[in-house]
Amino acid sequence: MKVLGISAYYHDSAAALTIDGRIIAAVQEERFTRIKHDPDFPTNAVRYCLELAELSINELDAIVFYDKPFVKFERLIETYYDYAPQGIVSFLKSMPVWMREKLFLRNVIRKELKKIMPYDKKKLKMLFPEHHLSHAASAYYPSPYDDAAILTIDGVGEWATASVCHGRGSDITVLKELHFPDSLGLLYSAFTYFLGFKVNSGEYKLMGLAPYGISGSERVESFKKIITLKLVEIRDDGSIHLNQSYFNYAVGLRMARDDKWQALFGFPKRKDEDTLTQEHCDLALAIQEVTEGIVIKMAIEARRLTKSDNLCMAGGVALNCVANGKLLREGIFKNIWIQPASGDAGGALGAALAAEYIYSKTVRIADGVNDTMQGSLLGPEYADKDTIEELRQYEPIYKQCANADELCENIAGLISTGHVAGWCQGRAEFGPRALGNRSILADPRNPAMQQKLNLKIKQREGFRPFAPSVTEEDAAKYFDLNVPSPYMLLVADVAKAIWKPLPENYNQMPLMERLYIERSSLPAITHVDMSARVQTVSLSTNLLYHKLIKAFEARTGCAVLINTSFNVRGEPPVLTPTDAYRCFMSTDMDVLVIGNNIYIKSEQPEWKQKERQKGFILD
Length: 619
What we know:
Blueprint: E1 2-7, E2 14-19, E3 22-28, H1 30-33, H2 43-53, E4 62-65, H3 69-83, H4 88-100, H5 105-116, E5 126-127, H6 131-140, E6 147-153, E7 160-168, E8 171-179, H7 184-194, H8 203-209, H9 218-231, E9 232-234, E10 240-242, H10 258-265, H11 278-306, E11 310-314, H12 321-330, E12 335-338, H13 344-359, H14 384-390, E13 399-400, H15 404-416, E14 421-424, E15 438-442, H16 449-457, E16 467-471, H17 475-478, E17 490-493, H18 511-515, E18 531-537, H19 543-556, E19 560-565, H20 577-585, E20 591-594, E21 597-600, H21 605-614
Parallel strand pairs: 1-4, 4-5, 6-11, 11-12, 14-20, 16-18
Antiparallel strand pairs: 1-2, 2-3, 6-7, 7-8, 9-10, 13-21, 14-15, 15-19, 16-19, 17-18, 20-21
Helix pairs in contact: 6-13, 7-11, 9-11, 11-12, 15-19
């Protein structure tokens, strides 16, 4: 069965193609349009999937959209009715869009597909699984397990905001749901909003800020008490009830009621570029710890209901890798597998797989060990000859290496001497994480590297941590982690063997002073709480990246690299050679690698021209 899955019209639109249950391609639309979290119909992503498989729309057995628009519309209407006359501004703003587009989504999709290529409308079968079923399918079907509890947690789909399902063989059974307006995802997003970050994209910043809070301090414990007494009731099964008098997301245009939150926590909503203070950090830690507790309770309930040893996870909250790490250490399940594209983009893949296994009843085979995500390297790739032709307009200077060994030796040498490398290889990653194909790489031993990467290259907040990539076989030398983490979705402590002594007054230091204390022999990837968001790299999923890390180890004795996504603040990760070259030339990156070609910044014509204009180069 040939199935095209689509997610669109909220955020992170994407397309995915499966053939007889095998994942052929998956990619977010933002990578093509360069609009971060692009919500529009994924025209470019659909075209890529079809062209890769050399398929026409007429040859597809089904096109599957990742949720049910009529059910979502029902929820909106009921919510506005329940809260009337509140929400009139939001109602007037949203209803025209629904009446013009979303309510008639079948016709909208048909029109968008016709822009890609002509097709016979009578042959086109369209399916609409529920939002959380799409998430559950994206988690279970690519996993290694033939029996698993499935936990999905996000903001909201149609009505569901969290669900527990049981996957067995080719079937998924929904066992329990939490419904809107009670939502762990929306609770976390409300704190994202109050702490000055953008909802639906800034949640990971909140997660990164939380470790700067003082764990166990009087203020953090006070904040947690306020949250659990005033904002959220937490039940034993992990279900929650939010006190809607403090929130405004149900029918308003903001997440929370600013004045009431200021009265609760003692400070006003932070504006985007306001200085971060210790009270901001402590509140971030408080909601992070409350969230972790709720996720663990939900997981315990999922184990109780399914009796399974395995857990699969998806939904936006499943990208909270700190909570995932805590859940792993709780030992509730023997095995945990998390969909690397857990957000709405992954819904496109889940929708396609749901059609394959639930609608068409295809027999599913899982080996208990290997997932079918192919390292999540499911997007476009570019051959060397295409790269050379595409970049010809810039007249770049480059060196072409004869083979992978020569390439990795060259780049390992440059990184080991303090150079920052843009690394663009093979198929692009599906999901929000850079996994070694569209990455910026650097030396984690360099104490100045975190500041350099954040401020001069990524152009983002200085407090943001960086993730390490480590060869799978060497991970235990550097991190307290005894399972693979190929998708960078688990946080683990840095191994105590490489810790450095901390000042006695460490927790009393201002945020930015703590940031630049050397906490381990790998200071650039060791977060302030001695943790790291780890990616383990295996020979089977990314041979070239593994080879590069081993080449770096041969030079330095260190089998770890800094790995951050190849982009700057406000932009999605690069996709094409042109994207990579432009990003490279607009930042302080020292070297760019695309395929077997190496571009050194100081040799590029555009760079030399700028330096001449500054008077730094004399002819």
